[in-house]
Structures are given as structure tokens and as C-alpha cells.
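Before the break, one more example. Copy the sequence into your notebook; we will annotate it together after we see the structure.
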Amino acid sequence: MSLDENDHWQRLTARLLAVLAADPSDQLHWAGEHRVTTAAVADDVEFVLRLAEGMAERGTLAPDALHDLRTIDRLLGELNARTRAGRWADALAADAIWSEARTAARRILTAKLGDWHLPLPRRVPSPAVDVHPDVPGRVQGEGAHGSCS
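Here is what the structure looks like once it is written out:
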């Protein structure tokens, strides 16, 4: 992977972590605005974890950050098993797992950037991933990988 590609993946990871690290009220607003499902967030974390493992192998991601990403993935996997079809905003309001995931995301961002306060990304549906195949213009999956700018 080139340095430019590595930078791209680090920015992608930072965008997802910005959402996960945000204050609960900001997460609720963002989740409601973008109609994100719990399953999509869990899928995004799984995708970013795979990227992070490669970055850690190349020495561009600290082992502590990889550990925290694995923790977030485990926590969201547990939550996803219970609320897969539900809206992420509902899960945020009802489940204490988000506090643990938020803390881990903040730790990663603070270690890498010196602060966890980042602007929340704007979602841009990716036609290759997010457009429902049966209904033109209808969005189905709302994952952040490849769809935040």
C-alpha cells in the first residue's frame, strides 16, 4: 500500500471514529439525520478493523489503537446480535455498550491526533454499496465505509 493509500485509509478510519467518539447528543442527531442502522455501524467497524490490522502490520497504526478497535468491534458485534435491524439512534439511547465504544474511540483519536473532537462526516450514499437494487434512488445499507466525506 502506498503512503497516499495509507493516508486515505487513516482518514476513513478517523471519520468513523469521529462518529463513534462523539457526545451522545451529537451521535443521536447524526444517526437520526442519516437514518443509520445498527447493522451498518457494526459493518463499518468490521471493515475498518480489517484495514487497521493491515495498517498495524505495516507499522502505521499503534498496537493500542488496534486493541481498542478490536474492543469496539466486539462490543458492536454483541449489540448487533441483539438489535441488527434497528435504527442506530434507538440503540444509542438504550444500550450502555455505546459508552464503552465511545471511550475506546476517543482513546484512539486522542493518541493519534491529540484530541477526539472531530467534525462529524457528511454521509454520501455510494451507489455501488448503498442503492437498493429494486427501487431506483432508494438507499438500503447506510455504512460509512466509502460513503462519508
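Residues 124-149 have pLDDT under 50 and may be disordered. The helical segments are 3-21, 24-34, 38-57, 63-83, 88-94, 97-113, 127-130. Try to locate both features in your own notes.
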